[in-house]
Amino acid sequence: MTKQLKTIPKFADEAQERTFWETHDSTDFLDWSAAKKVALPNLKPTSKTISLRLPQHLLDSIKVAANARDVPYQSLIKVWLQEKLHSH
Known about the structure:
Layout: H1 14-23, H2 56-69, H3 73-86
């Protein structure tokens, strides 16, 4: 017995579509069992510039650690944040 899927409405803009999907379950509109995995090798994640205030001694310690690893200190901070997120 297959589930009768609803028709996805037409949206005037992205904001309207976003609001719709925040309040509706996609499984009512799509058969996810038929979905296929895709690889998007050229897709780059978007980055957002932030301002982060750190005590000078902490920043100096991070720069020393980055220098010892021969990586930019901003990259090392990103790696550490990612590792911390995945450890919890």
